[in-house]
Structures are given as C-alpha cells and as structure tokens.
Design a protein that fits this description.
The chain is mainly beta. The protein has a single domain (4-111, 125-273), classed as Acyl-CoA thioesterase, double hotdog domain (Porin), CATH 2.40.160.210. The chain has helices spanning 4-12, 36-48, 148-151, 180-192; strands at residues 15-18, 21-24, 57-64, 74-83, 87-96, 99-109, 141-145, 160-167, 213-217, 219-224, 234-244, 247-256, 261-273. Strand 1 (15-18) and strand 2 (21-24) form a beta hairpin. 36% of the residues are buried.
C-alpha cells in the first residue's frame, strides 16, 4: 500500500498528452472540490517540463476561477510565452468541462549570484519528534501549529500564526519527473495553500459560524528566493494585515530550520458571510 506522500508524488507526476498539453489526476478518495494547492503544484510541474533543468521557478501568480471537480482529471495547457537568455515565462490554464478553473503565469530564471539580505525568522524551534502525533502522520505533510492551544478556543486571535511542516518521509522523485528541484518547488507550492486562507479569519473567531461563511482562495502568488527541500522542516510564518469587502489579505514567509528565507506567499481569500 502506497503512503500518502507516495500518492501525492504520483499525482504530481502528470501525464503528457502531447507537446504543451498535460493531464493531472487526483487522490483516489477525493470528493467534492479540489484542493487549490494541488492544482497549483501540478501547474508548476506542467510548466517546468517545458523549461531547461538549469532554470528553477522564481515566481508564480495564479487565479482560481472556478471550483475544481474531483470526478474528472484536469488538463493543463502550457503557453510558451517567452524563452530569454536569463528568464523563461510560461502561462498555464487548468481546464475541466471545457472551461478554465485556474490560470497561472510562472517565471523561471537561470541561477545567478547577486546582492543578498533577508528578514529574520520568528524565534521558534522545529518540534521535537516526541511532539509528532500519530494523527499528524496520516497525511502527505506533517504540520505542527505553534498556536494550536490558542486555536482550541473559539475566541478572537491576532491575525498571525506559525507552523512547521515537512513531507511525511523522504522525497524520491518518480523516474519520469527527472528534476528533483522542480519537484520540491511543486511540493512547497502545494503546502503553501494550507493554513494561509484561515489567517485572516483569526481576529473574527467566535463572531460567525463556519457554516455561515463562504470561504475560497481567490488568487495566489509565490516567490522562490532559494531552492529548498520539502522533506526538511520549513517554518511557515503567516499574517493577515487586512480584511474588508468580503475578502481577506494573507501573507506568508517560509524559512528553513537554519533561518534562511526560501519563499514568500500572498493570497486574497473570500470571506463572505451568508445571511
């Protein structure tokens, strides 16, 4: 029996239908709407397979257009916008039932040296192994929320949260996936959608019932500052500076355990109260 991580890596190993056209599957037990992080990660792989291995992704900007249907595969159409000497740009449309459910522009860059500085990682240590519960080991990613005790209470909280995550086991690329760095970038993209949306809701806890709020990711942006492995602990520091007009603005920073800032995210989410 395959582990949840092996299943995820298999799902990211999308099928090539013909040049610039790919097909992605879903978890066998998936029902209802598709997870946005999965669609983004598959789109990263689709785009990356049209780019030389020496050009890792450095940024992506995507829009969630329609809910994904777990009953049918997703077709990814890749438009080769530009192939420059340093940068390569791709535009991807994820399609179901003849309509785009997600669109994304992604840019790849030849690795080069340059001026460097970064913000400081929040002062949290990775969780000790004895704090990892059996329940945390059921999914493809192990996630440890630093503020989990505060979240047990349905009371308002500051619009900040911190979690450590890593894949539930070592990452071994499938033979057809080839570029290990691309797979790790896709896995970070997959996990970047987890917990981000909920950050803007934290100050409003206790003021609404879950069934009375319509929530969804509207867009997603991500910048890859350094290459990193998804099977090593990553600190995901999240905050939400603002919410209004039925939308929440969320931000995230990913750090390795040694404090290196490896990626940043931004997302606007739907926070519509139902009457």
């Amino acid at each position: 029996m395959r582990s949840s991580l092996q299943e995820l890596i298999s799902i990211l190993d999308i099928e090539m239908l013909e040049e610039n056209l790919y097909r992605g599957s879903h978890p066998l037990d998936k029902k209802g709407r598709l997870y946005g992080g999965q669609i983004m990660a598959q789109a990263v792989i689709a785009a990356g397979r049209t780019v030389p291995d020496d050009r890792p992704p450095h940024s992506l900007h995507g829009y969630f257009l329609r809910p994904g249907d777990a009953k049918i595969p997703v077709v990814f159409s890749v438009d080769r916008i530009r192939d420059g000497r340093s940068f390569t740009t791709r535009r991807i449309a994820a399609i179901q039932h003849g309509k785009a459910i997600f669109s994304m522009d992604i840019s790849f860059q030849v690795v080069e040296a340059g001026l460097s500085h970064q913000s400081v990682m929040p002062d949290f240590e990775p969780p000790a192994e004895h704090r990892i519960t059996e329940n945390m080991l059921k999914d493809s990613f192990v996630t440890y929320m630093m503020e989990y005790k505060q979240r047990l209470k349905e009371a308002p909280m500051p619009a900040k949260q911190h979690c450590w995550f890593r894949t539930n086991g070592a990452v071994d690329a499938a033979p057809t996936q080839g570029d290990d760095a691309l797979l790790h970038a896709a896995l970070l993209t997959y996990q970047s959608d987890d917990a981000l949306l909920s950050t803007a809701r934290l100050p409003h806890r206790g003021n609404f019932k879950r069934e009375n709020m319509q929530s969804a990711s509207l867009d997603h942006a991500m910048w890859f500052h350094q290459q990193a492995r998804a099977d090593q602990w990553i600190m995901y520091a999240l905050d939400a500076p603002e919410s209004s007009a039925g939308r929440g603005y969320n931000r995230g920073s990913m750090f390795t355990a040694d404090g290196t800032l490896v990626a940043s995210t931004m997302q606007e989410s739907l926070m519509r109260l139902l009457r």
